[in-house]
Amino acid sequence: MEKVKIQSLDKNYSANIFVKRPEKYRELKEISDRYEKMIPMGSCSSYVPASFCNDNLSILMTKFNKIIEFDKVNKTITVEAGIKISELLQFTLKNKLWIPQIPGYPSITLGGIVATNAHGKSSAFHGTIRQQIKEILIYHKTHGWLNLSKDENKKIFDLTIGGFGLTGTIVQVKLKLEDFIGYNFKTSLIKTNSLIDTINNFNEENKEVYQYSWNRSDNITNLGKGFIFKNEINSIENSSVDTRGLYHDTNKLESNFKFNLWNNFTIKFSQFLYYNFHLQKKNKIFFENFKKIIFPFSGKEMYFKMFGRNGLIESQIIVPAKKINQIIDEIEFNLKKELPEITLLSIKKIKGECNYLRFENDGFCITFDFVRNKKSLNFMENLDSICQNNQLIPSIIKDSRLRLNTIKICYNAYDQFKKDLNEFDNRRIYRSQLSDILEL
Ligand SMILES: Cc1cc2nc3c(=O)[nH]c(=O)nc-3n(C[C@H](O)[C@H](O)[C@H](O)COP(=O)(O)OP(=O)(O)OC[C@H]3O[C@@H](n4cnc5c(N)ncnc54)[C@H](O)[C@@H]3O)c2cc1C
Asked: What does the DSSP 8-state code read for residue 137?
């Protein structure tokens, strides 16, 4: 079998791997039984090397994309795990239903979403995908076909959600669906003057409104100036979303320019344009289509290409509300000291409870994208120390640079995850470059 060269989206890791793309359940079993080490793969669009490992097999699940069962009355759906999230939404939205925990790119698969416990724009309201999962069917080389739920194989169910594919291949998922009665989104903006001002302007909404910020990071004087975007489902009776625009053929995130085009000048220029464009919209209400809100990176792949061969670093951390002022102070202090080149800075609220290696907790979720260079890496070292000293949760699926020591300190249940995983699979058959970093 021929090897394929593959890279993580952040370009920090590459590997030569074998790929098999089963079409049938029997084929999946045969492949899994034949190979010694393997890892399931969705659309391979993760920032980190989570679905491949050098010289190992990746089981590409994209042919497993069927809808098995749909129960409109009880609002549940059972689907195969290789289905793209855009395909799943195309079906459910026609029935005025959806899952709200949607990561920002349409070709991401349901398997990838479950295995990373993903969240969406409404993370303050809906939490992570864990909230929607009723049952999972996996295939494991030594355990065979296993049904997982809160009532059956509960421990493996818990290990599998946010378990980075290490408990075997997720084949089917039964989801609880939520109502989506509306045509598009009603958006409004609040202008903010600093990061603290942004935090203070996040409202406690008693209705379903998604709030997230975009903050300037192009120079210290402008730091934190920006907007809070508020999206509310625009309920028009008897209307449903126009789903045609959701169609997404291929993963367009793979290619990149040879050289990095993000620098102080291009960051300043693009943020100046974005800021001034949105200034005119403040205090106004406008309507935006479903795709633009839910898949903000679709059609903007140029953003990733511009990082060139060196790639980017994405960091996402959760800060509890009671620590947020102190942490923002520390972040600002270090930003002024190291002056990293930040292309994206955004804040939203999130709710949940961190267990095992799942990225969830109650608090503010801060996202940064950096140009990969010395200044950024220095800043990130400081950010790691801030996380360690304050037990903040850094996202493992976003930042391939994170050290095991930081993860062990920040994730209280790291040892428990490792122990439970080894109890389930003492041969540790399912492995990736990420699981090697995590020493799992
Ligand atoms: C542009 C962009 C925006 C994003 N936005 C968000 C966001 O808003 N919120 C968020 O939480 N995340 C976000 N992410 C991260 C993304 O949700 C995860 O990286 C997701 O896992 C990618 O899914 P994938 O299908 O590409 O899986 P892959 O990258 O191929 O795999 C990711 C992990 O899932 C496992 N996996 C995949 N399929 C299966 C399966 N069938 N069975 C078992 N394990 C499996 C793999 O083994 C691996 O550990 C974003 C990523 C991108 C590129």
From this structure: E
pTM value surpassing 0.85:
yes
Regarding whether 355 and 236 lie in a shared domain, the answer is yes
**Lookup: tokens for 146:** 């296993």
For residue 306 and ligand 1, the question of a CB distance below 6 A is answered with: no
Same-domain check for residues 261 and 360: yes
Given this model, what pLDDT does residue 239 score? 73
Q: Do 195 and 176 share a structural domain? A: no
Residue whose CA lies nearest to ligand 1 atom number 6: 103
Shared domain check, 355 and 273: yes
For residues 389 and 279, state if they share a domain.
Answer: yes
Nearest CA to ligand 1 atom 51: 46
**393 in Cβ contact with 162 (< 8 Å):** no
Q: For position 127, which CATH number holds?
A: 3.30.465.10
Closest CA to ligand 1's atom 23: 112
- pLDDT tens track for 56-71: 999 999 999 999 999 9
Q: Which of 51, 164, 253 to mutate to test the pocket of ligand 1 (most atoms within 8 A of CB)?
A: 51
Q: What distance in Å separates the CA atoms of residue 101 and residue 333, rounded to the nearest whole number?
A: 33
Q: What is the pLDDT of residue 181?
A: 86
| Ligand 1 atom at minimum distance from 61 CA | 41
d(CA 136, CA 153): 10
Would 43 be classed as within a structural domain? Answer: no
- The residue from 135, 154, 180 where one domain ends is 180
Q: Span 416-433, mean pLDDT?
A: 98
Number of domains in the chain: 2
Whether the CB of 46 sits within 6 Å of ligand 1: yes
Query: Tokens 């509960």 identify what position?
Result: 154
Query: Which domain does 119 fall in, by range?
Result: 67-180
Query: Is pLDDT above 80 for 9?
Result: yes
268, 138: one domain:
no
Q: Whose CA is nearest to atom 3 of ligand 1?
A: 104
Instruction: Look up tokens 């935090």; give the residue.
Output: 199
For ligand 1, atom 21, name the residue with the nearest CA: 112
Q: Could you tell which of 21, 45, 298 is best to mutate to test the pocket of ligand 1, judged by most ligand atoms within 8 Å of the CB?
A: 45
Which CATH number goes with the domain that contains 304?
3.30.70.2520
Q: Is 111 in the pocket of ligand 1 (CB under 6 A)?
A: yes
Same domain? 176 vs 196? no
The torsion angle over the Cα atoms of residues 391, 392, 396 and 399, rounded to 10 degrees, is: -120
CB within 8 A of 191, min separation 6: which ones?
226, 227, 279, 282
